[in-house]
Amino acid sequence: MVAKGLTQGFIVDESPDSERNQALYEKIKGILKKEHGGENCQWTDLQMEAQLYRYFKTIRERDHRLKQGKNEEHKEQCKRNRRVSTKLERHCSGFDVLKPSLSAKERMYCEEILFIDYMSSEESDYEEQEDPITGEKHRALVGYLTKKLPWERTMLANVKTKLDRAHRNTLTPHARQMAKSRHVGGVSERPAPEGPSWAVRLPQTNSSE
User: Fold this and answer.
1) Which residue ranges are recorded for the region named Disordered (predicted)?
2) Model pTM?
3) What 3-state class would DSSP assign to 143?
4) Which end of the chain, N or C, is less surrounded by CB atoms within 10 Å?
């Protein structure tokens, strides 16, 4: 079993309904009720029980990953997912800025590709740096490697670049300066979505752009 600090006392090798896990749950429930209004607690017993099972599932999966040596891999994947979601948010922000000045056709193009499926994924780009005082070496995040989407047409890339630029122009000079650099590194293996032909290059398409 992993350290207690990782599981908050739950026994992940047992069922959430086991005697020991249920005893801990009852203790936690009592503390929550005491700190949040007693009988007037904002959460019902059913809500707290549902949260228990969600939390127990999370720590059990984490325990399994740790034992398999896959926890770091999982954390890196979570970071990738967050970066893709953040990229979509940036594009949506840029679209909001540009929307009043776009033609109906340009707005349609943007609306058709403002989905996760069209966002390129990114890998953390680290480099080894040395502390000037202690001389100790450590890995430092210096930017991100953007994976090229092989099915992405030039028009799609141009639309996304335009949205990125519009969002960037809304940032303060300090925020722009603090942003990590991004450059192309590698090719994505993600399959092409069933998107519009102006944006997605299908395998059988041989036309040049």
Assistant:
1) 170-209
2) 0.56
3) strand
4) C
Q: Which residue has the tokens 């499926």?
A: 117
Low-confidence ranges of the chain (pLDDT < 70): 1-8, 69-71, 74, 203-209
Token pair, residue 125, equals 């780009």
Q: How wide is the angle at C-alpha 75 spanned by C-alphas 177 and 135, nearest 5°?
A: 60
Rounded to whole angstroms, the Cα distance separating 61 from 104 reads 47
- Which amino acid is residue 56, in one-letter code? F
- The whole-angstrom separation of Cα 164 and Cα 94 is 6
The residues that bridge with 137 in the sheet, in sequence order, are 130
Please name which of 180, 121, 118, 116 lies closest in space to residue 153, comparing C-alpha atoms: 118
DSSP percent split of the chain into helix, strand, coil, nearest 5: 55, 15, 30
Residues 59-116 have pLDDT tens digits of 888 777 777 766 677 677 777 788 888 889 999 999 999 999 999 999 999 999 999 8
